[in-house]
Design a protein that fits this description.
Strand order of the largest sheet: 13-12-11-7-6-18-19-20
Mean pLDDT: 94
Number of helices: 23
Number of domains: 3
Structural class: alpha+beta
Strand content: 15-25%
């Protein structure tokens, strides 16, 4: 059917409403029927809507595909100029600016609206006239309030926003589910498979902001041979296939896989799509959420570009606080369940995501703005409840014990002048000989399996002093507590990991600098008691209150505490060496960084929603440490078992002193001493360290 057919009926239904509202909005650009205080705001918003409207007209008439490169670049710049760093300090999308110019009463609400209207860009490029129209009507309804009264009732304006998201929850929920599991929605697939990838105009078909980075990546990949591109694609798709094989899941029952990728990597994605087709899988692609309805605080997802402006994204991460309450949450959950029911068959046959990440952006240190929206304590509780219920819904319709994933990362040009060199080194790291690592990692596991606890200490400025309790083994000949991770779903190779026993896991985790989900943390300290976070701090901000809030929102994801869901020892010293040689340690993604030292994940275990699926190491031993004292609560109450987050925090080798396995009788065996591996047979891991 295709994406155009999906939207054809709704577009036709709304055609008359669309023409009327666009005609009215066009008039606002020159009229003076609201208070002078708000006049510039509404005129600028109307100008933006009319620009997006022009794009939608071009999409409907086929002009978008035939524009000159110069026209593509000019429109791209016009659509995004308000939120680019160069324009943001004067933009109504900036909460500080909006409140300064529009006042305390309405500045925040109008700033939210200004940001929400930006979803029109993607709606225009995809030809979603229904979505475009309802946003226009939202704008007009609020404009009418100011037109009728110079200072309207704030509650009335807030209610208009509230009921918009409440009433249209079905539309947004269906988008979210369908775009993930239904290959008939093929907007992105058509761009990937049908474009001339040597003609940079294809990049502008997405409707995302195309910077020099996306163009440089696309041009660089065009220089690579078919063999090099195919090898990169094979690494991803084979990892996905092996993920099913090693966990005993039946891939033949599945029909779709969701590709998540950065724009500019289409040559690799196209080759991966052909590979997946050979496995009997059609590809789905969804867009990184453009509305506050679907936006999360967990980084880029779906089809995306590098951040246009991280401060803008940070300022708007709590936009949903303007309409979030219990009734709305229940309405959204109801709509999501209805959407899953509608696409029940497609969801059941969905295999999971194949993810490409990027790294190399300049580490971001956010500025807290008092004017930015914030969640109340009650809303924080609702967010936690909502995420828990959404996780359960997803797991019901796309069962966790029947799906898998794979994830791989590559650098982008902002990493520095040696981008191409670093890119080729990353490709090498992603394709290291897994058998060599498998054998060395098994020797480490053999020692760890004798441990009752493991003691980890830092050196120099690192204050880590942590005890991790290890799952006991009933039959050591057939059981193990640690998984031997050899680069299938989690590329590159290089870690052994376990779900710790919480009771008895105690102490301080500290790292002087770490980069988590695109945010930089300085002197991050976490104290654990019985495996749960008991205290936390960092030195990002001048006041402890700001530091606490930063961690609560971005590391704890509004939970009062989180358990240690994973303890792992990274063994990819080659990746560590690359990071030091090119001075990019602060730019590595968690995916690679977690392999460059011991790491500790806060949140769910690595086996979340699939704890009852038996998993085996290459030596045939079953990994029995799949649960902890919290995840096991799923048997009584699912809402108490999962946190829907999992963040890895890595101690780099140069901040690490010892990792010691301690047996029940007090006998100790070193895994690492003075930051070097000392288990017999692992000496090769130290070569990159020296």
């Amino acid at each position: 059917m295709g994406y155009k057919e999906i939207f054809r009926e709704s577009n036709e239904e709304v055609a008359e409403r669309y023409e009327l509202v666009i005609e009215r909005i066009a008039e606002i650009r020159t009229e003076n029927t609201v208070s002078e205080k708000y006049q510039d705001y509404f005129q600028k918003a109307a100008e933006f809507i009319c620009l997006a409207h022009k794009v939608l007209e071009q999409e409907e008439t086929g002009v978008l595909e035939n524009r000159t490169l110069k026209a593509c670049e000019e429109t791209n710049q016009q659509l995004y100029q308000d939120i680019l760093p160069s324009g943001y300090e004067k933009s109504y999308a900036n909460p500080a600016v909006a409140i300064q110019l529009l006042g305390e009463e309405f500045g925040s609400l109008l700033c939210f609206l200004y940001s929400e209207l930006r979803a029109m860009i993607s709606y225009a490029f995809e030809g979603r006239k229904m979505h475009f129209t309802i946003l226009c009507e939202l704008f007009m309804e609020i404009y009418n309030c100011f037109e009728a009264d110079n200072e309207p009732d704030k509650k009335e304006v807030k209610n208009i926003i509230y009921w918009f998201f409440h009433d249209y929850s079905e539309i947004f929920a269906e988008d979210k589910v369908r775009d993930m599991v239904d290959p008939e929605y093929d907007f992105f697939a058509k761009i990937i498979m049908e474009s001339d990838l040597s003609d940079m105009r294809y990049l502008y078909r997405y409707g995302e902001y195309i910077s020099e980075s996306e163009i440089a990546v696309a041009k660089f990949l065009n220089q690579l041979s078919e063999e090099e591109i195919q090898s990169m694609a094979d690494t991803m798709t084979e990892g996905f296939r092996i993920g099913f094989e090693t966990t005993g899941k039946d891939l033949s029952k599945k029909e779709t896989v969701c590709m998540e990728y950065p724009i500019g990597f289409e040559r690799v994605v196209r080759a991966a799509i052909f590979n997946f087709e050979k496995l009997g899988l059609k590809v789905t692609v969804y867009r990184d959420p453009v509305s506050s309805f679907g936006r999360t605080n967990g980084g880029k997802r779906g089809c995306y570009v590098k951040s246009v402006n991280k401060q803008y994204e940070f300022d708007h991460k709590a936009d949903r606080s303007l309409y979030l309450d219990k009734a709305y949450v229940e309405r959204r959950l109801e709509a999501m369940k209805a959407a899953f029911e509608k696409y029940k068959k497609q969801a059941n046959h969905h295999a999971g995501p194949a993810v490409m990440e990027i790294f190399g952006e300049i580490p971001f240190e956010p500025v807290f703005k008092l004017e930015a929206p914030k969640y109340s304590p009650e809303q924080n509780e609702l967010n936690v409840y909502q995420m828990s219920r959404l996780g359960q819904l997803t797991n019901t319709y796309i069962p966790g014990d029947e799906r898998s994933f794979t994830i791989i990362a590559y650098p982008i040009p902002t990493i520095g002048e040696k981008f191409e060199e670093i890119f080729r080194e990353t490709v090498k790291i992603n394709t290291l000989d897994y058998m060599t690592y498998r054998n060395m990692q098994q020797k480490i596991i053999d020692v760890l399996d004798t441990a009752d606890r493991v003691h980890i200490t830092g050196k120099g400025a690192n204050k880590t002093d942590l005890w991790v309790k290890i799952h006991p083994l009933t039959n050591p000949k057939k059981e193990t507590a640690f998984e031997n991770c050899v680069a299938d779903v989690n590329i590159p190779v290089g870690e052994v990991f376990t779900s710790p026993v919480l009771s008895g896991t105690e102490g301080k985790l500290h790292v002087t600098q770490v980069y988590l989900n695109e945010l930089k943390y300085l002197n991050l300290e976490i104290d654990f008691v019985d495996g749960k976070i008991a205290a936390y701090t960092c030195s990002n901000f001048a006041t402890e209150e700001e530091n606490q809030r930063f961690l609560y929102e971005n590391l704890l994801h509004h939970h009062d505490t989180l358990p240690m869901g994973e303890f792992a020892i990274g063994t990819n010293t080659t990746a560590y060496r690359m990071a030091r040689d090119y001075d990019i340690a602060d730019k590595l993604p968690i995916l690679i960084a977690e392999k460059t030292g011991p790491h500790f994940a806060v949140g769910d275990t690595c086996y979340s929603h699939a704890e009852d699926t038996k998993v085996y190491n290459p030596d045939g031993k079953e990994i029995v440490a799949r649960d902890n004292e919290i995840s096991i609560l799923r048997k009584e109450d699912m809402e108490k078992a999962y946190f829907n987050c999992h963040t890895d925090i890595t101690i780099p080798y140069d901040e690490l002193d010892t990792i010691v396995a301690v047996e029940k009788d007090g006998t100790t065996r070193d895994i690492i001493r003075d930051g070097k591996f000392v288990v017999s047979g692992t000496e090769e891991l130290n070569i990159p360290l020296t």
